[in-house]
Amino acid sequence: MMRTAEDLARSIGAELEGDGARPVRGLAGPEQAQADDLIYCEGERQRARAEASRAGTALVPPGLALPGKTLLRVTEPKLAFARAAAFLLEPAPAAQGIHPSAVIAPSARLGPGVSVGPFAVIEEEVEIGGGSEIGAHCFLGRGTRLGESCRLYPRVTIYAGTRLARGVVVHSGAVIGSDGFGYVRGPDRQWKFPQIGRLEIGEDVEIGANSAIDRGSLGVTLLGADVKIDNLVQIAHNVEIGEHVVIAAQTGISGSSIVGRDAMIGGQVGIGDHCTIEPGAVCGGQAGILTGKTIQSGWVVWGTPARPLEQFKKQYSWFARLPELARRVKRLEGRLGVEDKPSD
Amino acid sequence: MMRTAEDLARSIGAELEGDGARPVRGLAGPEQAQADDLIYCEGERQRARAEASRAGTALVPPGLALPGKTLLRVTEPKLAFARAAAFLLEPAPAAQGIHPSAVIAPSARLGPGVSVGPFAVIEEEVEIGGGSEIGAHCFLGRGTRLGESCRLYPRVTIYAGTRLARGVVVHSGAVIGSDGFGYVRGPDRQWKFPQIGRLEIGEDVEIGANSAIDRGSLGVTLLGADVKIDNLVQIAHNVEIGEHVVIAAQTGISGSSIVGRDAMIGGQVGIGDHCTIEPGAVCGGQAGILTGKTIQSGWVVWGTPARPLEQFKKQYSWFARLPELARRVKRLEGRLGVEDKPSD
Amino acid sequence: MMRTAEDLARSIGAELEGDGARPVRGLAGPEQAQADDLIYCEGERQRARAEASRAGTALVPPGLALPGKTLLRVTEPKLAFARAAAFLLEPAPAAQGIHPSAVIAPSARLGPGVSVGPFAVIEEEVEIGGGSEIGAHCFLGRGTRLGESCRLYPRVTIYAGTRLARGVVVHSGAVIGSDGFGYVRGPDRQWKFPQIGRLEIGEDVEIGANSAIDRGSLGVTLLGADVKIDNLVQIAHNVEIGEHVVIAAQTGISGSSIVGRDAMIGGQVGIGDHCTIEPGAVCGGQAGILTGKTIQSGWVVWGTPARPLEQFKKQYSWFARLPELARRVKRLEGRLGVEDKPSD
After folding, report:
1. How far is B21 from chain A (nearest CA, A)?
2. Smallest Cβ distance to A137: which of C139, C186, C319?
3. For B71, phi and psi rounded to 5 degrees?
4. Pairwise CB contact (< 8 Å): C326 & B329
5. Which of B103, B219, B328 is opposite residue C340, by nearest beta carbon?
6. In degrees rounded to 5, what are phi and psi of residue C334?
7. A with B: how many residue pairs have Cβ under 8 Å apart?
8. Taking CA atoms, which of A114, A119, A227, C99 is between 20 and 30 Å from A61?
9. For residues C246 and C264, what is the distance between their CA atoms, to the nearest angstrom?
10. Chain A residues touching B26 at Cβ < 8 A
């Protein structure tokens, strides 16, 4: 469907300047853009690249001019660009129609417009909301329930009984609702602690490639609405993650930890079990939060064990100067005629 | 099958107090339990939750009373709970019967009662022990051998020639027996070092979702009996892991390292190549063990480079006080009239 | 096909000493080798093992003798061993012929000798170069292009539009060309930044099991020729990796970072976004490179934040002696009659 700059301005609430009839077919970076692409420019620093672009239409902040282009003026051009993407782009379907090779149990219920790719397996009592797309090679275990408009890329496994609300997107290779990791050591072997709880995933959650999200052991693992999870992330049993939380790649969250809404977790972070990340807290990449610790709202933490960034910086700056500090101590000892060998 | 509290007491060797005829159908946490569920209570701290539970039957330690419930008295209630789970729960089968869509090579030999899910691929000369379950989308490469009662969840890949003893459980997405990572740099390109060894996995090993276990390069990668591996774990070529070892999520073990029996490895630990983790040693989360190092039996290590926890704590407590220490040195310099700038 | 020591010597450019007619069928470690296997010996340290081996043929450096064996004398025995593997070993095919169960779109074009395993899905407009092998359960999204002689092990997902040059090898579970991770926070939800760029992979790249390589957001993610990537590695959107780079397991590289040719990246390394790893730099295992930082050519870096190894060693040696340093400061304070409590 053909959209114009004016259509787009109306859709995202931008102020239009210039030719509103200009067609806008796609989005691109300034260097790759064609005449009918949309670009965005956040300020003076990016202005030269935007000006040199062939793009006919640009999202710009107040006060910024780009001669010859149709301008869509907004307060947050990058946010508007993402919203424009949702308006302009039709994501390629993860599946089209119901492929005849798919194995769908008789008791499974598929809503209107559900599509299922080749070799997908849908077990008994699964329910899939209307418009959802199930990619090739997906496996939906018994009793799984998906809301409307979910999208599973090819090769996603969902263990039995897992629930996904509407609009959940799961990328290829992710394993959803797998057993948590818990054993009790007996005298001669380990006994598996029951992993019979559930996993519930809120609306509009997106889960990256090859991530693994475990079900509850006895209770429930919960991901709130609008949670965004990158690739290769591990979420253990009984974890609760609040709305809008963002978790970057290769982070692991251990059992029964709670991550409050709007928290931001960097890549390769390790969160021990029974931790609390309070709402809005930020954990820097590779941070390690020890078992049972709390990261307070308003904190940005860093390092292992994680501590507030300002504190870390002070400590670290002296770590880097330790050889110097040691020399200074030695000099003082020389002045006082004290031997520098350890006092114990 | 209907079980009573008395059946259960007999099975796990508990002392029965109260109504032995009470039916016990499942296990639950205190808050979720129904009348015919079993709960466990480890001591006074959990007593209020247990007392308030609707559960009719409870595992309790010596001396603890829960009025109105049938009590199964044991010395280790949590261990008994895990053992009760093995008695009470029939895990949902990973596959039922031999699905007609599965591609099974003529020379593959399947023991009695083996089940194979949809779209599984079983190559030539594979041998599968009786009662094993092969989930949908699994791939068993040529010559793979599985013992009895193995369970592969959907979408497990096993490279050619890998051997699994009886009772091995592998979760979805795991890749078992893949090529190790080894190249030799030539003048203009890298040449792959041969990765033609084997992988052997002992009895009752469990491997988590999306983990990767490499085959030996020339030799063998070995996982001993009762090893438990969490999600997203990496085990490199020629690694040997002793019995009962537990490895938490996202840990990586580099080539030719040896992990002794009963060792416990936390999450996100990195073990360099040619390391030795002696039997029973404990590596804390995110620890880094440098190439060739030994972690001794009895040690609990922490940090990178990993060192005994007590040592780390002392060092770290001074790290956190470095700004203070630096101020104290500066004050001493002031007293002695020494300049505080670096001495070199 | 039967090869002799003389065939092998000619193929890899070695100097033959002894019986050139001796058959060489395989490669092995000294302890596992049979009479018709090739072993290698890098020097005196390995000589006893080599001498005791049943192997009939050995790669040896100048000046080393192994009585009774046919010797292939070379300057770099391990490199020659890897080259010999390429000459002697015929890797087992990832697929044979076109399996009738594969779903191949009518517009897909397969070169001569392409093989496709059971349940593979090849979408519209895919192009596959001659001699490539597509394993069981692979998924090739619309418009994907593979060069000649690629090998996809079973269960590889390639998102639409990805390009692989000739000779690329991808191991099981890898996800290639998935969406990058980018959202822009709006007042009440997060909007996905478009992830509509491409992924291009150069010749002879090898990618390990369960790794994830994202496509560009607007631009392109690039892997140069001869890049070797281990298991469970994460490469984010718009990353550029130069030729011959080696990346060990569980490392993550964040968006828009550049890794120069010949760099070596250890395991569990975290590279922030917009970093530059200059050509030939080495990042030690678990190193953390902060957003926007540059690691210079010639550096070997270590730790988080990453710094040159020599610098780290000096700092770290004092970290380990911090309790001692603190005692020495306290002793000095005692001498001078200064209280040791913090000065602020």
Report:
1. 24
2. C139
3. -105, 135
4. no
5. B328
6. -60, -45
7. 194
8. A227
9. 5
10. 196
On whether the pTM is more than 0.95, the answer is yes
- A142: nearest CA partner in chain B: B92
Please give the angle made by the CA atoms of A35, A40 and A42, to the nearest 5 degrees.
150
pLDDT tens, position by position, C242-265: 999 999 999 999 999 999 999 999
pLDDT for residue B92: 86
Pairing of strands B307-308, A139-140: unpaired
The CA distance from A297 to the nearest CA of chain B, in Å, is 22
* H helices, E strands: number in chain C: 5, 38
Using a CB-CB cut-off of 8 Å, the residues of chain B touching C334 are none
Give chain A positions within 8 Å (CB) of B118.
103, 119, 121
Contact B82 A321 (CB under 8 A): no
Rounded CA separation B241/B251 (Å)? 14
Other C-beta atoms within 10 Å of B184: how many? Answer: 17
Q: B92 to chain C nearest CA, in Å?
A: 24
Place of tokens 């993650």: A241
B137 is catalytic: no
Read off the pLDDT of residues A234-251 as tens digits, 9 standing for 90 and up.
999 999 999 999 999 999
What one-letter code names the amino acid at C95?
A: A
Which are the contacts of B341, defined by CB distance < 8 A and separation ≥ 6?
none
The pLDDT of C62-83, averaged and rounded, is: 97
**Amino acid A156: pLDDT:** 98
- Give the nearest chain C residue to B272 (CA atoms): C285
Identify the bridge partners of residue B37 per DSSP, sorted by sequence position.
B26
> Residue C344 pLDDT > 50, yes or no?
no
In the chain, the amino acid numbered C281 is A
How far apart are the C-alpha atoms of B252 and C266, rounded to whole Å? 12
Q: Measured over all CA atoms, what is the biggest interatomic distance in chain B, rounded to whole angstroms?
A: 90
* Rounded Cα distance, C41 and C22, in Å: 18
Q: Please, what's the b/e burial string for A161-193 (b: 16 or more CB within 10 A of its CB; e: otherwise)?
A: bbbbbbbbbbbbbbbbbbbbbbbbbeeeebbbb
Domains in chain A, please, with CATH?
5-88 (3.40.1390.10), 103-309 (2.160.10.10)
Closest residue of chain A to B338, computed from CA coordinates? A332
ipTM of the complex: 0.95
Which residues of chain B neighbour A171 with C-beta distances below 8 Å? none
- Give the CA distances from residue B288 to residues A272, B295, B333, C33, in Å, rounded to whole numbers and listed in that order: 16, 11, 37, 35
Q: Taking residues C311-338, what's their average pLDDT? A: 91
Quickly count: other Cβ atoms within 10 Å of residue B90's Cβ. 6
Are the CB atoms for A182 and C219 separated by under 8 Å? Answer: no
CA angle C164, B179, C216 (to 5 degrees): 30
| Number of Cβ within a 10 Å radius of residue A284 | 22
Three-class DSSP category at C289: strand
Q: Using the beta-carbon criterion (under 8 Å), do A246 and C121 form an inter-chain contact?
A: no
State the helix-helix crossing angle for C5-12 and C77-88, rounded to 10 degrees. 110
A neighbour chains, 3+ CB pairs within 8 Å: B, C
Please report, in tens digits, the pLDDT of each residue of chain B (344 residues total). Answer: 789 999 999 999 999 999 999 999 999 999 999 999 999 999 999 999 999 999 999 999 999 999 999 999 999 999 999 999 999 998 889 999 999 999 999 999 999 999 999 999 999 999 999 999 999 999 999 999 999 999 999 999 999 999 999 999 999 999 999 999 999 999 999 999 999 999 999 999 999 999 999 999 999 999 999 999 999 999 999 999 999 999 999 999 999 999 999 999 999 999 999 999 999 999 999 999 999 999 999 999 999 999 999 999 999 998 889 999 999 999 999 999 887 555 44
Instruction: Give the pLDDT score at A343.
Output: 46
